[in-house]
Amino acid sequence: MNSKKAVVRHGLAGGGFVTLLLAGSLVAALGVPTTASMLGVVSWLVFVGATMLVAGRWERVKIGSRTVGWPRVAAVAIAMIAVGWGAISLGSLLVADGITGLGPIEAVLTVGMVGYFAWFARECWVGGARIDAETFVVD
Q1: What percent of the chain has pLDDT over 90?
Q2: Which of 2, 10, 42, 95 is most buried, judged by most C-beta within 10 A?
Q3: Which of 1, 7, 15, 21 is nearest to 117 (CA)?
Q4: What is the pTM of this model?
Q5: CA 55 to chain centre
Q6: In sequence order, what are the beta bridge partners of 68?
Q7: What pLDDT is recorded for position 104?
Q8: Nearest Cα to 49, choosing from 80, 19, 85?
Q9: Strands 66-69 and 60-63, bridge-based pairing
Q10: Do 16 and 56 contact (CB within 8 A), yes or no?
């Protein structure tokens, strides 16, 4: 495994683990989700965390009768981060001043982060358009 690939894969595994810890912490602190919105947030965190962990730990994943390489699994996880972050932030901005209370600044941060995650998900999906293609090789 080359060094760039190792950095990306370790980042995915670590990020997935921390995301699963965050989901578990929410459930431990707030109890089992009883509202649809809280269930949605916890489910989203578990899906993203598990998908990132799988992409970081295994070269290939068997889904049904098809085998998928880690970059495609990572692309799905990163795209779900972008979609979830955007939806949660937009929803909170429409209701009030956002999750952070920063209002317009949160909107700018959200656009930037969602844009970055969307770009990185695309890089993973195509196997590197701007990032070195060797980073996304499936051994």
Answers
A1: 76
A2: 42
A3: 15
A4: 0.89
A5: 11
A6: 61
A7: 82
A8: 19
A9: antiparallel
A10: yes
CA triplet 72, 65, 119: central angle to 5 degrees? 10
Inter-CA distances, 2 with 9, 32, 132, Å = 11, 42, 11
51-78 average pLDDT score: 95
Please count the residues of the chain: 139
Q: What is the 3-state secondary structure (H, E, C) of 27-79?
A: HHHHCCCCCHHHHHHHHHHHHHHHHHHHHHHCCEEEECCEEEEHHHHHHHHHH
Half-sphere exposure of 53 (CA within 13 A, CB side): 12
Answer for the pair 53, 73: CB distance below 8 angstroms, yes or no: no
CA–CA gap between residue 120 and residue 7 (Å, rounded): 14
The single-letter DSSP state of residue 103 is: T
pLDDT digits (tens, 9 = 90+) for 69-118: 999 999 999 999 999 999 988 888 888 776 677 778 888 999 999 999 99
